[in-house]
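Write out structure tokens for PH domain-containing protein.
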Amino acid sequence: MMIFKPKRIHPVGMILSFAKMIKSYIIPAIIFFFVGVEETFNIYFIIGAICLVVIIVIVSVLEWLKFTYWIEDGEFRIEHGVIVKKKRYIPIERIQTINTSAGIVQQIFRLVKVQIETAGGGLEAEAVLTAISKNEADEIEQALSAYKNQLPEESIVESEVVDKPEHPTYKIKPRELFVAASTSSGIGVIISAVAAFLSQFEEFIPFEQLLNRFEFLTNASFTLYVILVFLAFFIAWILSIIGVLLKYAFFTVHKVEDDIKISRGIFEKRQISIPIARIQAIRVVQNPLRQLLGYSTVYIESAGGTAGDDGSASTILFPVISKKEVVELLSIYLPSFKVKEEVHSLPKRSMLRYIIRKCLLSLVIIIPLSSLFFPWGLLSVSLLLVGIYWGYQTFNDTGWSVIDNQLQLTYRFVSKSTILVRKNRIQSISHTKNFFQDKKLLRSFKVSIKSGILGKSFSIKDMDADDVEKLLSWYSYSPENKTRH
């Protein structure tokens, strides 16, 4: 059977559809269970719940029966819908990437989930096939590639994928995976998730009974409180490590012709394919701990679609690599992007402005602590020293450079970021000045690129006015013929 003929997804799709609908009813069911009075939990409630489950099962089966996909007349076509029949025809030339992933259910049945993304796609994928075989996913990719390359249909068969030549491959090392896990910011996510859960269900959690069990802590020493807080953060840190290990295990990068293919994960295996032509910029990030250890994280900023893990256009290319490997790996996978160690620094007259800004942020913490916990809160004044050091390091790490047709910006808020963007990928550049900057001949410089749906901007504050003019001239004119690039 040719791949072009209408097909259904695997019957496992019914299970996934059922689970998705059940998930949407879980929260209302929990709320109803807790707030409902006992008299309502009678035979009618049980019958109603059974009927609801039966309806969901029937709808899941009908959705599976009505969902078909095929390729015809240069379009990827999908028809679905139980009551209202819906059709979606996607021109193949608009299709940018085909991303695959496999959750626990898909892995049990050796299936994958396929997301098809287009250049002008929104926050969600243009089309999703929740459960098909890996061979079918490969055949779809072959068929779309054949259409784009105007190959004859006879060359696309429903057989095993032919062996491809060797391509550059990067696999994360155990040491790098451990560094990525132990130095991630996942601890904040876990604490936020716990806080959000408690806030949503605070009416149903017996806080008073729990507090009574720990009433002995009211007379505990300050040291014991410090130990308990430390243990809480340590547990959150361990959980974040486990989460990152599971997420980025078996992280692999392949360069296949004009695409970068990234795969990773244990419980949820995910594969992302990014055309090199869609890459708008490279972002190299070092949080303070990773910078201290000499490691960086490399991101790809791509145009349109939802390539990133979080639905954004930022995709991790290398979770954690040593600083010296950044240049080497970029030269292999994306040779048009180059990192330059030496950059043009900010003028010294900018340093005081950077320090003042960070000290003002410190005061936001110092003032309430000093007033609420007087006199011990006055110890927080020492945070001004942190602000001074933070401001100086931010000033010291900020700079810019130009390598042929590539602009490099380096700056810091908490993490140090290095942005690499080609001239032909820059959507716009701009500069602003306020009264105080103008007196010091300083400017704020901003570069905008097409990344995701809304785009993305990177900026440096308090650059020398002459340096800003140089960058404006570089962007506006080609050095060879003095014409617009």
